[in-house]
Write a structure and sequence with these properties.
Mean pLDDT: 87
Low-confidence stretches: none
Largest sheet: 8 strands, mixed
CATH class: Alpha Beta
CATH topology: Rossmann fold
Number of helices: 10
CATH superfamily: P-loop containing nucleotide triphosphate hydrolases
Order of helices and strands: EHEHHHEEHEHEHEHEHH
Distance between the termini: 11 Å
Helix content: 40-55%
Length: about 250
């Protein structure tokens, strides 16, 4: 089963692409675990799932983190379990609708703490479990980086899909993600262009990111942009475009 990570600069439409892929795969009859690993969590809204506003991100579940890691909430510098039990958590924590199972991870702490804190340890262990031990398709909506993944977990992903719009900052972010990913041995990194107004925009992306394969483009559409800005469900208006992107994903992976 495919394990896909969607990343890119904030605002480029990665959550929209993640939602479109999840919807299409679910309609194919696949069981899909949709992981919202972006601190600005809105994948559930993009999928049109009800009850998402009531979801507490796992990174903020202090009692659960304390129970599973043996840590004390708010106290750092103490010992905690580096391999907490997580195999029973998905069914307890995901929001399920049809073939879609949504899990909201919350933000990974950065800076000097790195991953050496109970929250990060629980998140990374849980994500590893979903990738290595679940027979479901996994689509993970990430922030611009690979902080949610350890080296081994990241290498288990079938593909990193970087969403890029035709703009300098978006392209620079894609280049940084490529460097970060290859630093830990990841090679299967591809690009999907978004908010494309015509052939010139496609050419800008292709020429700027010659080191990554471009597997598809989504056109600029006010309805898609508006839905992304408002956190509304992604319009299912590009089923053929998404189908072609999925075919390319399957070919490349």
């Amino acid at each position: 089963m495919m394990k896909l990570a969607i990343t890119g600069k904030g605002g480029v439409g990665k959550t929209t692409l993640a939602a479109l892929l999840v919807q299409h795969l679910a309609e194919e009859g696949k069981r899909v675990i949709a992981i919202d690993a972006d601190p600005d969590a809105n994948l559930g809204l993009a999928l049109g799932l009800s009850g998402t506003k009531d979801i507490v991100p796992i990174a903020e579940m202090e009692s659960l983190i304390s129970e599973r890691t043996g840590s004390k909430p708010g106290v750092y510098g103490t010992y905690f379990k580096l391999n907490p039990k997580v195999d029973d958590l998905p069914e307890k924590l995901w929001l399920e609708k049809g073939n879609i199972r949504l899990m909201v991870m919350g933000g990974v702490k950065k800076g000097g703490s790195g991953c050496a804190c109970p929250e990060n340890t629980l998140l990374k262990t849980l994500i590893s479990h979903l990738i290595f031990f679940r027979d479901d398709v996994v689509v993970m909506d990430m922030e611009a980086g690979i902080e949610h993944l350890g080296r081994g977990t990241a290498s288990a992903m079938d593909m990193f899909i970087v969403v890029v719009e035709p703009g300098k900052r978006s392209i620079e972010t894609a280049e940084r993600i490529q460097v970060l990913a290859r630093d830990i041995g990841l090679q299967n990194i591809v690009v999907v262009g978004n908010k494309i107004r015509g052939p010139n925009d496609e050419e800008v992306i292709r020429q700027s990111l010659t080191g990554m394969e471009v597997i598809g483009f989504l056109p600029y559409d006010e309805a898609l942009v508006e839905a992304d800005l408002k956190g509304d469900p992604a319009p299912v208006a590009y089923s053929e475009t998404v189908r072609v992107i999925l075919e390319r994903i399957r070919d490349v992976s």
